[in-house]
Amino acid sequence: MPVLAQVLTTTDDKETLMDACWALSYLSDGENDRVASVVASGIVPRLAALLSHESPSVVTPALRTLGNVVSGDDAQTQAVLDGGGLAAVGPLLSHVKKGIRKEACWMLSNIAAGSRGQITSLLEQTHLVDAVLHQVGRRSMPVAKVHTNIYI
Q1: Confidence band for 138, pLDDT divided at 50, 70 and 90
Q2: Pairwise CA distance, residues 43 & 145, whole Å
Q3: Which of 9, 70, 110, 151 has the most crowded CB, counting CB atoms within 10 A?
Q4: 119 Cβ partners below 8 Å, 6+ apart?
Q5: CB-based burial label for 40 (10 Å; 0-12, 13-18, 19+)
Q6: 3-class DSSP string for the chain
Q7: Structural domains of the chain, with CATH
Q8: In this predicted model, what pLDDT tens digit does every residue of 25-61 receive, in sequence order?
Q9: How far apart are CA 112 and CA 9, in angstroms?
């Protein structure tokens, strides 16, 4: 974990950032002790900053990792809020890539399942709530037309 944290803070190489973020994503996908090791590494603020990276190939695993962290306990969710994750996810709700918008909504839904204070922090960001509601209103798949033939 310390090596991955160091890599994320010392390089701007897109491929290296992408690989390190995917590694953190896999490491944080599971039990709370795995999530705790990511939080303890101190890398959450850097992951939040990477949400504004120009490359979706970096944004996607950074977002997935933060989503995994907010799936943990309330203290782990709070680490993402304290690390700037809530502010950083906002622009992703209108990202050109559907998968990133979906992951951003998933991350916010996990925050909404947190403590009263975390839910309040989320709801106070009315632009985030509006953006999520906009996503809910979007049609992700075309509506199938049903043809029926009635013979009398």
Answers
A1: low
A2: 48
A3: 70
A4: 111, 112
A5: middle
A6: CHHHHHHHHHCCCHHHHHHHHHHHHHHCCCCHHHHHHHHHCCCHHHHHHHCCCCCHHHHHHHHHHHHHHHCCCHHHHHHHHHCCHHHHHHHHHHCCCHHHHHHHHHHHHHHHCCCHHHHHHHHHCHHHHHHHHHHHHCCCCCCCCCCCCCCC
A7: 2-137 (1.25.10.10)
A8: 999 998 889 999 999 999 999 999 999 999 999 999 9
A9: 29
Region of 137 on the Ramachandran plot (φ > 0 left; ψ -120 to 50 alpha; else beta): alpha
Length of the chain measured in residues: 152
